[in-house]
Amino acid sequence: MAKKPGMKCKVYIHKAGTNIALAAQRNATLSHSVEGTDTVFSIACNKAFITDDEAYATLREEYVQGNNVDVYIDPSGEKHFGNCTITAFDNDIPYAELSTWSISLQGLSTQLVVVREDGTSNERETKSFTNSTRSHR
Known about the structure:
The chain is an alpha+beta fold. The chain has helices spanning 53-65, 123-135; strands spanning 10-15, 21-24, 27-35, 38-50, 68-74, 79-92, 100-108, 113-115.
């Protein structure tokens, strides 16, 4: 994976099944882990900006109802697409800066599709990662 400046790596949260962007982040972490028998991916968006009041209402509703959202991540030339649940939705209200949100998301790694710059997908590699992770437990 090539190095890429952090400001060019974005996480976008969309209402599931739509192109309606609800939020984008300033800082984020993409993690993979094993929980029980599932391999999951988690995204922690620190300093997320919500696009407008309607987007806030939609995000809040999706969080409260436990509905999934779609996520698009662009770290270092690969595009990651996934469907996940919002697991935390916290407001950061500093005195001297813009109000932002900390949003945590979680989904199954088997549902995280990675598309490389050349257009190829790692769907087979994702399955391989899932199987190798389980075998190392």
